[in-house]
Amino acid sequence: MKADVTTLAAKKAGSVDLADSIFGQVPRRDILHRMVIYQLARRRAGTARVRGRSEVTGTNAKTFNQKGTGRARRGNNKTSQLRGGGQAFGPRPRDHSINLPKKVRALALRHALSAKAKAKELIVLDKATLKSPKTGALKASLDKLGIVSALIVDGDNVEENFGRAARNIANIDVLPVRGINVYDILRREKLVLTTAALEALEARFK
Fold first, then answer.
1. In 10 A of CB 37, how many CB atoms?
2. Span 111-136, pLDDT tens digits
3. How confident is the model at residue 49 (pLDDT cuts 50, 70, 90)?
4. Which of 10, 69, 87, 202 could form a disulfide with 50 if both were Cys (CB 3.0 to 4.6 A apart)?
5. What single-letter DSSP state applies at residue 124?
6. 12, 5 contact by CB (below 8 A)
7. What is the rounded distance in angstroms from the CA atom of residue 193 to the CA atom of residue 189?
8. Do residues 39 and 181 touch, judged by C-beta distance below 8 A?
9. How many helices (H) and strands (E) does the chain have?
10. What is the pLDDT of residue 206?
């Protein structure tokens, strides 16, 4: 599979071969869904916590007599039915992460890349560099390429000027190739890979 290489100035800079083992898969929605659930579950802090009946400050004395008042039978004021009482079965700190085999995670990434290539939402950029960190200049370049919402993936490191210019543009994410992931690929309309990122991905899945 061949893809045109373009520059930030929207000029053609040759072409590149895309490996079928990475970009030629038939995307499976179930695998992509499992991977997105896996990622979002790992992001959850799991720190939500409420106080139970035994942790609420208050007296343990019985509020009123058991019989003879005509009112409900009740103990102290720390019950969950009363305002200020402890919450019953409330959240406790816990780990929300789930397990997903390493091979399934790798397959999900290949399917996400293939989905973008199949939908013609993949753009190959020769390099992601700027002479100065000017957001306006980068925005103008992205407009020429027809990019409104995109994940831009560079090589081992994101060039400083490019990263600083891109962080002020809405719906534009920039990551080094080691940070590429299924959720960020799918949440943006376009996927922009530099030639350095392509080489790194091919070496990763070789």
1. 13
2. 999 999 999 999 999 999 999 999 99
3. very high
4. 87
5. E
6. yes
7. 13
8. yes
9. 7, 6
10. 82
